[in-house]
Structure formats: structure tokens, C-alpha cells
Amino acid sequence: MRPLAIVGPTGTGKSQLALDVAERLGGQTGAEIVNADAMQFYRGMDIGTAKLPVAQRHGIPHHQLDVLDVTETATVARYQQAAAADIEAIAGRGRVPVLVGGSMLYIQSLLDAWSFPATDPAVRAKWEQRLAEVGTSGLHAELADRDPAAAASILPTDGRRIVRALEVVELTGQPFAASAPVIGAPRWDTAIIGLDCDTERLDQRLAQRTDTMFTEGLVDEVTTLLGRGLRDGVTASRALGYAQVLADLDRRHDAGGRRAEPVDVRGRQARVGHGALACLGDQPVRRGGRHAADVGKRNPGDRDAPVHATPPARMAPALVLVLASARSAFLSTFIMALTGSRSTISSRSGAL
Fold it and tell me: Most buried one in 1, 141, 191, 231, CB count within 10 A?
């Protein structure tokens, strides 16, 4: 049977649907779940990422959860290699791999089998030294001389990506854009299910989720992770919710313990949710007034692309789109998607 990928915005019920599908498959061939939520890679980042507790996983094996310390940097290249090994091992056991998450850059790298330009520590060190000497604006100007198109796509303040672009140009002798992947049929003939939800309903769900996170102890979780080096983490410290709590704790410290201003997590959750499906499908999809072509701003050839990087404006084909669908009503169709062809489901009935 084909692997199954369940993707979509935060708050649409991906994790629970993956469990439902895996349990339904348990009576046939069996299934195992592979995480594709970049922030759930981190040990101890549980409440703020809505990571499913072990007791609620119903004995179904989950992979790519709790594989990094908060001081480690999550990269697309590492995930692609590790998740591909998981999927092939699951399939080798005669079980169905169920990929689930909303980190689209990571999912695309896996299903479209992206190849990443090599990296050379000496070359990178040279450009990092140059960055220290001339600053981001100066190095951006040097990139513009070597690769105008790359400079136009990278902010003059993004020193990390400027260094990476110059490294790739030097190593390959080609423009940075030449490392962009070719988008085609999904790897392993994966059936892709995209979950979506009405904007108003999604806003309500995200607001409720945010409130629940704080009630369950998000601030205490962040405080605990500070003792494990959260501030030193390049990607973990920027995670939605965690970054805002960190900033709020800093403001409280500066204000002598008084809360300076409310933590704005609700609005940020909503913005992430509304933009997540803009890069799915054979044709650009409109979400929240933004066109997919306006979303893809990062060259996926950056093997060290941080987890908040936005993918290109298109996803590999074989998408099954589910709009505000009731899970139970569509489980049979999801199972059929593993062996069937491309299809689209549209429904406004029921709750996810």
C-alpha cells in the first residue's frame, strides 16, 4: 500500500486524523506515524507544539518526535534523510507509513526528493569571517555582484542566508537558484491529504488552542526549557508561542516582574494557520487573501533552511483536499486514497 501524508494548517485535526487512519489500518496491514511538524522534533517542547502525549497514541509507533535537544538546529537536510529512512523501514515491515504535520518545506523536501548542494566548512567559515568584517549589508552587496537574482530574493539583513548563497555559488559555480528542486510525482507514490477549514472556524479553534496551552502550563514549560539552553537554540527559541513567552518573560524582568503587555500568540497562530495551504496543489491556492506566488520567498536549496522558511508555491500532485470534513465520515475514502488515484473531497459538514 502507498504511504499516506496528512498535511494542512495548525488546528485542523491532523494528528487525530492520523491516529484514526492508523487504527483503521491496524486491522489490515498496520500503520506507523512519521511526524512532519518541525517543532515537535524537540524534547520537552510538548504543550506549545500540541504534541500528542504517549498515553494518547494508542500504542501506534510514532517517529521523528523528541529527536533533538532545544540547543540543536533543525534542518531540512537532516529531516529528509531521517524521515526517508523511517518511511522505508516502515514499508519494509509491510506497514503503511502515515506522514503527518504542517511544516511544508520539510514535507516537500521529503516527498519531492530534493537534492541539496554540498556544504564546505572552510568555504562557509571564509564567508562568515567576511560577514563579521563587512556586516550584512556589505556582504549582501558582494552577493549582488556575484548573483543578482539571489541577492534580490534574500533580505539584506539575513546574514545566514547570504553566507549560504555565497557558499553555494562558490562550490557549484552556478547561481543559487540552480539548486532549486524539481517538483514532480510524490516519492513512493504517496497519497497526500490536505486538511483545510473555514477561516472563522479555524480562528476559533486556534484561539481555544492557545488558551488551553497557557492553562496547561506553557509558561512553566518555557521556564524549564530555559534551564536546558532554549535561548541558545537557533530554531527552537523561535518557535511560535515559545518566542512570545520568552519575550514576555524578558519584558517582565525589565519591568520588575510586572507584565508589560499581553503575549500575542493568538494572532500569530491565526496567521500561520491561514497561510499553510497556500503552497499545496497543482495550481496556486488562495488563502486569507494571499496568492501562493506571494508566499514562496525562500530558496529550498538552502540545506540549512530554518524551520520557518516558506516552501515554493506548488506541492507535488496527488493531493486530496478535505474542507471542514468530519473525520469519521471520510476514513474509508482516506483508506481508498492509498490505492486509488487523485481525487478531491469537498464538504462543509461536521467538525474536524
Answer: 191
* Spatial contact of 176 and 299, defined as CB atoms under 8 Å apart: yes
Q: How many residues does the chain have?
A: 352
Question: Which residues lie below 8 Å from residue 293, measured CB to CB, with a gap of 6+?
Answer: 284, 313
Task: Domain ranges for the chain, please list them.
Answer: 4-114+183-203+270-337, 121-179, 213-268
| Mean pLDDT split into 10-residue runs, the chain, 352 residues | 86 88 80 95 95 92 97 91 96 94 89 83 93 95 96 90 93 86 79 83 86 92 95 89 89 62 51 47 32 31 41 40 45 55 35 35
Q: What is the DSSP string of 242-307?
A: HHHHHHHHHHHHHTTTS--S----HHHHHHHHHHGGGG-SSS---BTTB-GGGT--S-TT-TT--T
For the beta carbon of residue 242, count every other beta carbon within 10 angstroms: 25
Q: Which CATH architecture has domain 121-179?
A: Orthogonal Bundle (1.10)
